[in-house]
Design brief:
Blueprint: E1 23-24, E2 30-31, E3 40-41, E4 44-45, E5 52-54, E6 65-66, E7 70-72, E8 85-91, E9 94-99, H1 100-106, E10 108-113, E11 116-123, E12 128-133, E13 135-136, E14 139-140, E15 143-150, E16 153-158, E17 164-166, E18 171-174, E19 183-185, E20 188-191, H2 192-198, E21 203-205, E22 229-234, E23 239-243, H3 244-247, E24 254-258, E25 261-268, E26 273-278, E27 283-288, H4 289-295, E28 300-301, H5 304-307
Parallel strand pairs: 6-10, 9-21, 23-28
Antiparallel strand pairs: 1-4, 2-3, 5-15, 7-21, 8-9, 8-20, 10-11, 11-12, 12-19, 13-14, 15-16, 16-17, 17-18, 22-23, 22-27, 24-25, 25-26
């Protein structure tokens, strides 16, 4: 019987290859964080600094949430529609839902679940939601939005060292923490209706965040880029990408294997949601296909109609 191990334990796996070599420049290099904002010290880095680009807002121009308030599921009646997207997390016996309508405006939530800290992240440009354990070597780290991008993906920073972290790589790309990894926690990108049905005792992030934002409006609605969702699955060494357009061809659970480790994918066509079941810890998350391919060029892209079902 396959167990949902990845749904209850922090993953010790990172996506893709191991930590990259750290380059240390001979002189201090500072990266502007915006007018009168403290710059980022990028003297140490693991990617070419020329590949870090401006995302628009300055440092903290997009405000991360810190220990926000939550509602019970029944209190969200009339506030959330069943079709609204949420990033759902079920860990340590507690379920929480983070509406994408809020995440689009804040991108990070420094929170806790079952008395344990978590970091919730969302990149609107990549359609990727990831959750991490923010404890590194026994220390709790807190995070903010940098206003920088790496390959169109969110770069956030920790407030303890000002290192810049890649959301999709789960790794610090610059600063004193360069090369360090964040452990991922399982999360599900689904609809509010599907999430509350499977987790009736769930809490949901309140729209009373303390900030004046129009949470009914998608600030990225006018951005023109492909929004083709896909599921990425990795054991830390092997990476596979399953476009939702392909998963839609499958009936029932789909069996797969990474190295010697089998897993199963459950795909909900109505909610357009996918999750992975495995006896070992496997990292998985959903993002836009084009961005996943750009980040993981060696990943195997699964096409059932050409290859046949596994």
């Amino acid at each position: 019987m396959l167990l949902l191990i990845s749904m209850i334990l922090p993953s010790a796996l990172a996506v893709g290859a191991g930590p990259q070599a750290v380059t240390t420049e001979p002189k201090q290099v500072l990266l502007s964080a915006g007018l009168i904002r403290k710059p980022f010290d990028v003297t140490c880095h693991v990617v070419p600094l020329s590949e870090i680009t401006e995302g628009g807002p300055a440092r903290d121009g997009i405000t991360a949430l810190v220990y926000p308030t939550f509602l019970a599921a029944h209190e969200a009646l009339g506030i959330l529609n069943d079709s609204d997207r949420v990033l759902g997390v079920f860990l340590y016996g507690v379920a929480k839902a983070y509406p994408v309508r809020i995440l689009n405006w804040h991108e990070l939530v420094n929170d806790e679940l079952g008395g344990r800290p978590i970091l919730v992240s969302w990149c609107p440009l990549c359609g990727s939601g990831m959750v991490y354990d923010p404890i590194i070597d026994g220390q709790r780290y807190s995070f903010g939005v940098s206003g920088k991008l790496y390959k169109s993906n969110l770069l956030f920073f920790d407030r303890q060292t000002d290192s810049l972290w890649s959301q999709l790589l789960c790794e610090a790309l610059t600063g004193p923490m360069a090369g360090m990894r964040l452990h991922t926690l399982a999360a599900e990108n689904t609809t509010w209706g599907a999430w509350k049905q499977s987790h009736p005792a769930t809490l949901v992030l309140s729209f009373a965040t303390g900030y004046q934002r129009n949470y009914k409006q998608d600030p990225y609605a006018r951005f023109r880029f492909p929004r083709r969702p896909a599921l990425l699955v990795s054991d830390g060494e092997h990476v596979r990408i399953y476009p939702f357009s392909e998963l839609d061809e499958v009936r029932g659970k789909l069996a797969g294997q990474l190295g010697a480790d089998p897993f199963r994918i459950s795909f909900d066509r109505r909610a357009k949601a996918a999750r992975v079941e495995s006896q070992v810890t496997i990292t998985y998350f959903v993002g836009f296909l084009d961005e996943l391919e750009a980040f993981f060029p060696l990943a195997e892209i699964i096409h059932f109609r050409r290859q046949g079902k596994e």
